[in-house]
## 1
Amino acid sequence: MTLHHNLIAGEWVGSNGVENINPSNTNEVVGLYATASADDAKTAIAAAKAAFPAWSRSGILERHAILKKTADEILARKEELGKLLAREEGKTLPEAIGETIRSAQIFDFFAGEALRLAGEVLPSVCLNIGVEITREPIGVIGIITPWNFPIAIPAWKIAPALCYGNTVVFKPAELVPGCSWAIVDILHRAGLPKGVLNLVMGKGSVVGQAMLDSPDLAGITFTGSTGTGKRVAAASIEHNRKFQLEMGGKNPMVVLDDADLTVAVEAAANSGFFSTGQRCTASSRLIVTEGIHDKFVAALTEKLKTLVVDDALKAGTHIGPVVDERQLATDTDYIAIGKQEGAKLAFGGETIKRDNPGFYLQPTLFTEATNQMRISREEIFGPVASVIRVKDYEEALAVANDTPFGLSAGIATTSLKHATHFKRNSEAGMVMVNLPTAGVDFHVPFGGRKASSFGSREQGKYAAEFFTVVKTAYTLA
Ligand code: UN1
């Protein structure tokens, strides 16, 4: 099997390979990927630092062309890359192809943004002085990405970093190096100068730690667990470095008596269970008012019965496997905790066997849950959701906001008054009306509040906040 190397200073290097295993069939090795050492990470950071002066002054047409070429190749190879994604991560092939298209759209968007870099010109309060406000790249950016969106999240961090003239050291999640390797290969062949983008695949404790400890990273953008996010924050403050964190969620979906039942059930099934519930935007707290509660639980349970859990590549699969053994153990531990806490297991809860050995788990629904239970407060990151019964809209809103997290929140209602009030009063970064809490656009800001996020928003033109620094220049006329 060929070894996929790390890219450091424009060269493909590295020898130690680890196997990338397919969670739908653990007998299958998707590929062999190099692991970087702490010294490799240091060399990559030095290469990115050396490449920064030239790249930060590169022409916008060059940046546009490279990002556009990358978008076009990803799109042209969407079936192949989607299949790779489904094999390494376990989301279904249609979901994986969708994510691959999204990643092409992100590169396309930032190819355009490179041509739209702009500033402001203002008069000074003093006579005969002009003020210019411009945005400059910040320097070398460390990018650390999670396993659940192996191609979209790398895209939405790498594309703006390069678009605004930064250089990059990129460490993808250990479990899913395949898509990351593929997009780095595409960007490299699209003509990025040596050292502008470096790939260091490997362990968080080794490669990630070397990045956190480096005085030469001007910024780190991280998506992953709350625990690691806190370590990124602490190390970044130590080094006076900019940081942007996207972490967990415990997203509520409110269902009111006046909801369209079909709309509510579709939204809950999608955001609770699709992508195997492995999305920080998944809704795991279904907060349902009394009048519709029993009908909603019955209809959602019927819907769950129809969802096929199987190999991610099989036609007709709705829910692929859990990503690995460790995540499966977390999910089943939480299912046991939910039962101990007194929630009622309304559907699922069991691991299942399929033709191939894989990490298959039934979509799992608890009812009679309270918002104080651990299954309602802690992020599980699996296909597990709980229904919390409430009296009315006011109680639903209070319960929705009573959480340490604040990424995304949804409401299913036909009342304009309640939808409007919820949009205004939800303490989440993103609010969805009659839509799933997960599955976001690529051209608008993404991010949350409270323990879900830290720093400025990702995606769309708001990405410029993190990837640039503002300069104010005064000139005497
Ligand atoms: C989506 O719901 O479409 O890690 C995107 C995550 C998020 C991305 C969610 N950063 O799940």
## 2
Amino acid sequence: MSNMSKLNGDHIKLAIQKDGRLTEDTRNLLRTVGLHFESYKQRLFSICRNFPMDILYVRDDDIAEYVAEGIVDLGIVGRNLVVESEKPVEEILPLNYGHCSLKVAVPAESGITSIEQLSGCNVATSYPVTTSRFFAERDIDVNVITISGSVEITPALGVATAIVDLVSTGSSLRLNDLVAIDNVLDSQSTIIGNRTSLADKQKAIIIERLLTRFRGVMAASEYKYVMMNVPSASLEYISTIMPGLKSPTVLPTADADWMAVHTAIREDVFWDAIEELKKLGAQGILVSSIEKMFV
Ligand code: ATP
Ligand code: ZN
């Protein structure tokens, strides 16, 4: 990385995956928090035009190490790789994309239903550290075989009795006639930080500015903004009925029997909330997504 010498010493550095499953969502998130930067495939790094930060594009397997070593201050990577690396980095903020789980799976016709039955067997995985720890913690003695890709074909090849592999929809398991019998780890894309950088006065200020933006986007994605007309008589019930409601704004309308209510509703209670509101006589319900939210 000889080009690194061009990077600005006053800037913080963020490593993201160069080309893979997390790349597009990560770039989109960086743009949503207002960062302007060039990005095209051949680049090793970008300099943000409107924020004191440089972005490095690397293989996801290297991100935890780069952060731990202080080559970069921050990284965005799947938690699965942070755990596997065993590097001392700070897990700062989960980002709610790149969801997947590391699961133990066996051939459907094997008849194996519990991990205890794997005692003495070969288990193939790209996550040997996490896998070995998982079985050791349960006092199950297995032989962990490290494979870098296509782990799911190893049972058919007779190489392993079971696998430990990343699953998101499960379609790859089904395609290979495998079934999951246990869950090792749940993962999502996560911002991680170098501990020295986080303790550094100057860097911490820039990092906190960035994290505030990320938190604003994360909070917004959990809420919908709802505008509606509510019969004045049922207004007092509204806040007692819905736990997801956040500081509603109540405005009079031209008709004294009706009030206009604007509020944010948590996504997970959204549908229940809308049904309740309709029962209370709410009309003209308009729902929109929130781009950013600071509370
Ligand atoms: P690189 O070239 O950067 O090493 P890779 O091929 O190792 O990339 P990807 O397949 O792009 O990695 O996966 C990146 C991350 O996406 C994984 O570490 C994991 O956190 C997440 N992920 C989400 N769903 C899945 C899935 N079904 N299989 C694998 N990874 C997934
Ligand atoms: Zn990788």
## 3
Amino acid sequence: MKQQWTQDNLTSLQSSILAEEQKHPGATGEFTWILSAISLATKAIGNKVRCARIQDVIGDIGEQNIQGETQQKLDVIANEIILRCLGDRDNIGILASEENETPFLLRKRTDGGKYAVLFDPLDGSLNIDSSVGVGTIFSVLRLSDLGSREEAMLRPGVEQVAAGYVLYGSSTVLVLTTGNGVDMFVLDHAIGSFVLVSKGLKIPSENKTYSINEAYTNKFSDNIQSYLRWAHENEYSSRYIGSMVADVHRILLKGGVFLYPPTDTKPEGKLRLMYEANPMAMIIEQAGGKAVAGGERILEIKPDGLHQRTGVILGSIDQVDAVLQH
Ligand code: P6P
């Protein structure tokens, strides 16, 4: 199906979300309130990413985060920008970040804190010094009756009410789903707004491209190694950037399959379930694709920890199935 690109009328992120909310009687517009904070925060982060090397934002801060990864200056800056922009949204009960060991319990559900927003503030930040595309990934959950306690947030990905990412690449692209398909916006710096460029994105099939870090081939399971041998013998091409948002965005637009499987040194996988795999899986499924961890649907994994990791295989249904057949 030919990709539908809409540039004939100027639709901003806010007007697109408001139009969507009007389809739901009783919608209170509080969703727009959260997404406008995400829009503001990611515009500010994009500005910092674009000024890397001009402003002193490159390099690490000499400390490790909860993940045991060296924190980059921009990781901390991006994290603080998001916490500031989202923190004063009075319908957010919990904020949870890759960069912080424990979530921020802002307000109880009974005090209006109805949503949890989980995010990776700057995924792929180790690539910033070489100007490779990096991104912010976010997931929105409605809090259960457990109020603002952490358990209220540990819900399977099928319960997400919204998911999205912002790719700070050659253009600044926001991809968003609120459960009714996937829409894509590009930041028009001339007017300072994310403008709608595609509604109802559908992931193409029949693109024989895989995206995986082949340096770990000998550490993958036998079935992944068997798949790679088969792909090499069947005219597949390989594309791997090492920045999940950039790799997944390419898969969303062009098709193919992205894999970050468990290895013998990372038996639970590397990517985090709650704020990387789940939001990406919701976007890919909403675009007509498939997202699994081994044989299990990622969105049905029952989380038992905020920072738990998972294997990831996601992309076009035909390409994910080609992996699973090995
Ligand atoms: P590797 C970036 O550090 C990240 O978390 C994802 O953005 C990316 O997909 C993955 O790790 C790359 O990991 O082991 O291939 O460098």
